[in-house]
Task: structure prediction
Amino acid sequence: MIDFQNVSMAYSNKAPLALNDVSLHIDQGEFVFIIGPSGSGKSTVIKLLSCEERFQEGEIVLGDKALARIKPRAIPYVRRNLGMIFQDFRLIDSKTVFENVAFAMEIVGASKSKIRRQVPIVLSTVGLRSKMKAKPSELSGGEQQRVAIARAIVNNPKVLLADEPTGNLDPDNSEQIMALLQEINKEGTTVVVCTHDRDLVDKMRQRVIEIKDGMVIRDELQGSYSYCILPEETRE
Result:
């Protein structure tokens, strides 16, 4: 589903490598945390998958698309298979909750009748059908992030990319957002989350890919935020 093959990338000719010979594979339907310190390169993975940035070496395959050969005019079509969630929500303040979610469907040319049917269903999924007419400023941070999730999934993407989705939320709202992402994943959507949220990673025990200095240093199924080395006498 997602393949990085010896990918290296720098943001400018003089900058150090943001990713250095990274190879990884993520299957359809997986839930994956990408962790690492600030500046490690984890958000770069998201930016490359969404074609926000371009890489200089290697290959990235998303579904059946080799991203190195994607022309600029084709990028919007690649993004139709992606849902994006950000730390700062990125809602349009002048639009209602319904209009914010509908906007994602309008961009891909959905009919008005389909929008009228689909948006309330998706808002029900995230528990916000009663808030359809509200503006983002009238919602809590957790509610705003749920609107952002509804917008990200309204076109039924194959892959959901989340860059620090709980970064602006308190622990209770963070847990609710992650539980919602798990439910979406159970329906078959691949979910990739870049996060610093140690507690949630430890609780959820999903696959963990750790990046440091642009390199993958750990890829662990049912992993925790910190890698624990067992004492020699306790190992099998």
